[in-house]
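In this notation, each integer encodes one residue's backbone shape. One such record reads:

___
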Amino acid sequence: GTYRIQVRAPADLPSITGTYRVTVWEVTPDVTPLVLNQTMNGRIETPYSVDRWTFSAVAGQQVRFNPVNASAPGVAFTLRGPNGWIGLSNLVNAPSLITLPASGEYALTAFGTGGAYDIDYAFQLIETVQTELALGATFTGQFVGNGQAMLFRINLTGDRPFQITLGNAG
């Protein structure tokens, strides 16, 4: 539609002169499906730009948020989920491991901080694969970088005690 902007000097001042500037910004969020385990690219075009990346997840799913790159400082991220859950809030640059609490739709939002804009950025939301581990079985794995996580699932019956032994060959 067509909108009208009216600018007025305060009525309680006896006399005022000067210049002013009016800027109109597009603030509709850019909404894009997020693909787990892939590098996603975005751009904060204006001081009020918001990119919203959406995905579905199941309760207990574990993901690691990994900011890959930004053309300038000033991009922050917030992760929200079902029932008002907030997993990340205004995260700027550190990787973060998150266990999602409920099944449903999640949204990762990117926005500029402190008026920053014209920023290209990239990130990954990496799913930690669950490995089924039977009682008495041994699993040998290898970490390939900082922040890597392994998630194991052990199926137990009854309330018998069990023991987990961790070893580090290095």
Summary: The mean pLDDT is 87.
